[in-house]
Amino acid sequence: MSPSPVTIHPVDLAIVAAYLLAMIGVGWFVARRIRGFADFFVAGRALTVPILVTSLVSSYYGLDALFGDSGDASREGVVVWFTYGRPYTLALVLAAFLIAGRLRRVQVVSIPDLLAVHYGRPTQVAGAIASFLYSLPVLAIMGLAAMTEVLFGTPLWVGATAGAALSVAYVAMGGFWADTLTDTVQFVIMCVSLAIALPFVLQAVGGLDGIAQALGPEALDPLGAAPPLYTIAYAATALSVLVEPLFYQRIVAARDAAAVRRAFLWGVVLWAAYDWATMGIGMAGGAMMATGVLPADTPRDQVLIRLVPGYLPIGLSGFFLGGCLATAMSTIDSYLLIAAGNLVYDVYRPVAAPAIGDKGLIRGTRVAIVLSAAACVVIGLYFERIKEAWNFMATILTATLLVPVFAALFLPGRRTPLAGTLSSFGGLGAVSAFFLALHLWGVPEPELETRVATVGGVPILREYALFFALPASLLGYAAGTAAGRRG
Amino acid sequence: MSAWDVMTVLTILILGPGAVVVFVACVRDVRRLLRTELRGQDPPER
Q: Which of A141, A362, A481, B7 has the highest CB neighbour number within 10 Å of its CB?
């Protein structure tokens, strides 16, 4: 049973309501000005550096970062920032300098589009499946459901449905333009609200000294106390950045490659700061749980939302809640658009309607946005922890796409359709088989809150999926190259 | 001042004033794009 709801002042609720109405207004405003699918899906390829920064930062970081990372930090400490987080910084810089220029030269709209150019339809479909599964904003929906449960005591499905419906309302109307324009407002709200909350919370817990006293020295170990392979497995999820559909869409939507590189560099600074703030608040929450200020059984993903509103004055509390909503909705709308694009542009169009025009694409994408939102409400209610769902989705994406996409962008010479098919389906199949095996034959591992199967005396954790799936994808590529004909 | 404090102050500066500076630059660009890209006129020079 969850602890009782947090009390919210009417002024704070009014601020949140004003924010929601403003977002719907933007969608309505933009919907009347959309001219074609390029406007709807990649904003006419006109985005400048500041617009890219706000869009990248607010869309990529959702409630999985805000609630999930703070929850992890409340349990594991600074390892969340140093060892789990910074590999992402490295991957983001690599993405900016390696991928942006090459992708812009190919002139494609999405990752499956890129795969179609180099390997043909089967690989395009595999890529679209992986991209669709990954892009369903399940984590943000889970976070929204938890947030409304904490604030209003509503059942999880009510919060999940309401949040998804609001995001759908404006992104289905205005597409990527509405997404981008709302991102600018959502970006500043989510950043500034966290900057305001951090000192209030740290002061309440007695700063670093208070945290260290409550959580012990292991919470300050940058490498953490978990088994090294487990830590490496989490750090390896950063590889997903290199095939992140959201980044590919924004690279395509940017004015030029130089704008992308500069935006990513600004982005990594903002993301690192955001991570530090969520880590600090999470560790403060962990310290309060250890000392009895917060109930010891507070769900980890709810630590931040249960903690912060109580330490902010009226008005700022509403601003902070608006920041949480902005964090969730900027992610939900962006990823819904990508997932819907995968269904309509990357699967429906090439398979069933090659002659479809811009109007048909826009109409189909709007319908697919609604269907995708409904799907992730259902899926989101099945996962218990945000971190658990993140590992699953990042692994599917990376195992299916990393090898064929990087081969397409960087390998000179011979590329065969069979290589793309075997590497993408090989990776996807290996991940699916691994998770199924752990589900069937694994047992719960309470310390790390995961599942484990012991093979020949060696414990295999669920987080190790990528260690098996990535080699399977590589082998598939090598076998396909050796056996296949030139495409 | 410890490394923790330095990082915390930097974080507040980046997420507070830093984010506002980015936002202001963004609003300027959005206003220009609204006059061109979303009004059916020719896009700005690429």
A: A141
